[in-house]
Amino acid sequence: MKLKIIGIFMITLIYSNVRGNTCDFGYIESINLSQENCIPELFYYNSSTQQAAYFFESVILDGISLTENDWVGAFNGNVCVGARKWDVNNCNGICDVPILGQDSSLTDGYMLTGEIPSFKIFRASDLSYMDASPSEDITWSNFSTPVINLLYACDQSDCTPDCLGINGGLSELDCAGVCNGDSVEDCDGECNGLATLDCLGICGGNTI
What we know:
10% of the residues lie in helices and 28% in strands. The chain is mainly beta.
């Protein structure tokens, strides 16, 4: 009887170790072939024949681009409907978030035509999730592929809006007061002025 108990204990211990080493803490194993093997705990979703791809030209957190280990997840209410590891080197520079629609009982609560998805950013460095906002809201429809300029999130109280009103955004006013404009000051501080530095570093000088 004592040997039998030890045998059961050993089997359980080995099985637990294998399971524990499959994914790092904060991640779960996915059997969805369209996902990575290990995904953030809140970003699991089932496959669906109804799907769209939302492309984001830039994704930033506190004004800084995501790392290759961070993730972006899409939600319909509290239901995760898609996620992507944000490694732009594997996305030809612009990644997309697959956003799936409802097509069976396994995808109850997934997107329906006309609904607007919400987004979260998963920061791998501390396993934290933050609500993220797109620069524009686009309604979901099957097989749509919208391209959105920016997805952003803030984790700091002093994260101020840029000239477009986007918290954590990267847009700036030029010297003429135009958001993302191309006007610049010359060396004399005049906006769109013609003064230049000569070879001695003197503004408006004539040394050549």
